[in-house]
Amino acid sequence: MIPMLMKMKIVERGRKKVNLSFPIILLWIAVLALLIVLLPFVLIAALLLWPQGYGKIPLAVYAILFSLIFSLSGLHIQVEDKKNQILIILK
Amino acid sequence: MSEERRKILEMLQKGKISVDEAERLLSALSSPEVEEREIPSEKGKLKYLRILVEPGPGSEEKERVNVRVPLKLIRAGLKLASFIPKHAQTKVNEALQEKGIDFDFKTVTSEDLEDLVTQLDDLTVEVEGKETVRIYCE
């Protein structure tokens, strides 16, 4: 499942610097558009590299980028000390 | 035949482990302690790798780390890492050897990486000192 929402909280020296709930789906729309634009270049790179035996690499990396985006859901990072706190949640 | 036994026998057949090592692994598998642990195992259902660092008992430090990484993300990252060019892998090997880790990055196949992530299900690390560190899958 692709992450839809990103929560980010940054507290520095006891004061809230950032407290954001961002609908990250908007970012994915932009990323998807970018990936579609990049697709012809990836295909050209694959065709050019095919004789050297590296043609599969651009295609595989392209596919793994999608896989990375779809795997981000559930990521939770929280680091804090006495005064500072960073919290990032993707869900 | 269980999957673990089959894997051990395959490793023996390929010459990755010696007969003695295979015997030890097989006997460890058949020990009651392991069998007991396998019954409630939720292998395959576990989705996240959790890393917790908390102040130990009596510690005045307030530093905490709580990271939950999806296992799918680790898999995807490892797949991406398998496309690291060979000259860069040599540099990684050199850097590891400088730190005293004799590990050849080039010999790691995508199957090995998949096995590695699958076996993370059973991983539990607990270290107690000034800080308590816990690493486990959930």
What is this structure, in a nutshell?
The complex is a heterodimer of chains A (91) and B (138). With 91 residues, chain A is of the alpha+beta class.
Q: What would your notes on this structure say?
A:
The complex is a heterodimer of chains A (91) and B (138). With 91 residues, chain A is of the alpha+beta class. Chain A has one domain (5-90). In chain A, 45% of the residues lie in helices and 29% in strands. Chain A has helices at 25-49, 56-71, and strands at residues 6-12, 15-22, 76-80, 85-90. Chain A has a 4-stranded antiparallel sheet with strand order 2-1-4-3, with no helix packed on it. In chain A, helix 1 (25-49) packs antiparallel against helix 2 (56-71). The radius of gyration of chain A is 18 Å and the shape is elongated. The mean pLDDT of chain A is 89. Chain B is an alpha+beta fold and 138 residues long. Chain B contains 6 helices and 4 strands. Chain B has helices at residues 3-13, 19-29, 32-38, 71-81, 86-98, 110-119; strands at residues 48-55, 64-70, 124-128, 131-137. Chain B has a 4-stranded antiparallel sheet. In chain B, a hairpin with a 2-residue loop joins strand 3 and strand 4 (131-137). The longest helix of chain B is centred in the middle third of the chain and has 13 residues, at 86-98. The model of chain B is unreliable at 33-41 (pLDDT under 50). At the A-B interface, helix 2 and strand 3 of A face strand 2 and helix 4 of B. Strand 3 of chain A pairs antiparallel with strand 2 (64-70) of chain B.
